[in-house]
Design a protein that fits this description.
Oligomer: single chain
Radius of gyration: 22 Å
Structural class: alpha+beta
Largest sheet: 4 strands, antiparallel
Helix content: 25-40%
Number of strands: 6
């Protein structure tokens, strides 16, 4: 990538060059800001081809010489783009290979046209098809969470007949689907918690779902996607 950037900067100096990193591993941006390689305290390893805790000494010097813009994209958006590339274009891309396409598709690069819009020529490098098929489930999961279509809740059910039926009747909408139901344990004779995963039909269905939960008088706690416990669910 550095070689392509150096060639473009030398032969076509007016070319706008953008480098893309995963949001959970912005080690290059951190090095450029600090003027030297620095180690990230926390990082998401999902985009394994681009997720490094500390970049080497050489790459930041090349980035400074080329002078690209640096942007970051969410790992969930990368998953959505990987699925889009495969289902629409028939392209198998590993997470790192889909970074540039994700940046264009999500509009994080200011001033360029998104797919389907009029604008100048945009060259997107899609590199790397080393995608382990066993990761497909995780890719779909992360994409659904990013798109706001999958959510997890802790639901406390009273230990009495008909309690799950009331949850189905009072809480779930016509397009809501239970994709996970894990009854954790019976804490006492009166109630017991369950981990419930719901997939909704549209992002806009979440607000009505939350309203029905509040009106149900049931003890329901939504697990925030930014909560560390979410790592064990996705």
């Amino acid at each position: 990538m550095g070689g392509r950037g150096a060639w473009s900067r030398e032969r076509r100096p007016s070319t706008r060059i953008v480098g893309v990193e995963p949001a959970g591993a912005v080690s290059m941006a951190a090095a450029v800001r600090a003027g030297r390689p620095v180690a990230l305290h926390e990082m998401d390893r999902f985009v394994d081809g681009a997720a490094v805790r500390r970049v080497g000494a050489g790459p930041p010097r090349m980035v400074q010489a080329i002078g690209p813009e640096l942007v970051a994209v969410d790992e969930g958006a990368v998953c959505t783009q990987m699925l889009e590339l495969y289902q629409v274009e028939g392209i198998i891309a590993e997470p790192a290979g889909a970074l540039a396409a994700t940046a264009v598709a999500t509009g994080v690069i200011e001033g360029i046209a998104r797919p389907g819009e009029d604008g100048g020529d945009v060259v997107v490098v899609v590199s790397g098809g080393n995608n382990d098929v066993s990761r497909y489930t995780e890719v779909v999961e992360r994409s659904l969470v990013h798109e706001g279509l999958k959510h997890y809740f802790l639901v406390t059910f009273p230990q009495e007949p008909g309690a799950p039926r009331r949850f189905l009747d009072r809480v779930l909408g016509p397009h809501d689907d239970i994709v996970l139901f894990d009854y954790i344990k019976r804490n006492n004779r009166e109630e017991g918690p369950a981990l419930v995963g719901l997939e909704i039909g549209h992002r806009e269905d979440l607000e009505p779902l939350m309203a029905r939960m509040a009106a149900s008088n049931m003890e329901i706690e939504r697990i925030d996607p930014h909560d560390p416990i979410y790592r064990y669910l996705t």
